[in-house]
Amino acid sequence: MTPSTSGTARRITNGSVELAVFEEGNPDGETIVLVHGWPDTHDLWNRVVPFLTERFRVVSYDSRGAGRSTVPTRVEDYRLPALAGDLFAVIDAVSPGRPVHVLAHDWGSVEAWEAVCEPGARARIASFTSVSGPNLDHLGKWMRRRISDRSFGGPLAQAVASGYTVLFQIPGLATLPLRLWFSRHWPAFLKFFDRLDPALVRPAPTLADDMVNGLKLYRANIRTSLLRPRERHTDVPVQLILNKNDKAVRPVGYEDTEKWAPDLRRREVDAGHWSPISHAEDIAQLAAEFVLDVEDRRWADLPDGPSESASA
């Protein structure tokens, strides 16, 4: 199947930030909002979208600091509450009065975790499928628990996998390597790092800027969340898609997630970190199945909802 091209474009504001938002698919279907991570744009989902558009209304957007959206200059403008606010602004604009389903990857998933743990989130988010992006507070709580139990293997594995984030914390240190090498050789790097076919990688023209601007995500959130993790709970149905070969986010870090997200489903994909590129059909299928299951349950819970046979 050929990669998707962006559909109808619009701009949605959240305070001083303008977000570039793209819509395609079935206007009468359930709305799925796709949220990308670092250093991607909404184009991350180009291989996933064609598997969803026949049945669903698909909305994607460039996160702040990426692609065609506003690029704030202050580190504090990239804190998770602001990013969750962007997601809610998109939801309120594209689907006022009806909750949407969210599919997110990497930092997009971290942002979506922040949103689904906000009070009243279930009125705006019907379900959340998370790919390779933890709730940072949950991760911090899990690491503390494992260390307290003198069970160091899992935290050590994740610390090794996340070692690059230490470099990202130091202003200016990663800027030149990202601009001068990684942005120019990104498909080759993903082949080395993720065993990803470079022919599948279509870097955005803004990749070099997106890489550098996105470093503020790490500086604004990592240390605070891991050193002083909050109690963050959600009643939104959550699906974890665990990439078994993910070198950046180790699946072991999710072993306590049911404590904070009791309505939880786990699925595994034999993929690396960038599974929306390498295993697009699998990601789309798992997300679609979860959306339909959640919608069936939602209708069944309504006093005057359709019968099971009618909603199938």
Automatic annotation (TrEMBL):
Pfam families: Abhydrolase_1. Residues 31-142 form the AB hydrolase-1 domain. One of its GO terms (molecular function) is hydrolase activity. The keyword Hydrolase applies. The keyword Manganese does not apply. Keywords: Hydrolase. It comes from the Bacteria. This is Alpha/beta fold hydrolase. It comes from Rhodococcus jostii. The lineage of its organism: Bacteria, Bacillati, Actinomycetota, Actinomycetes, Mycobacteriales.
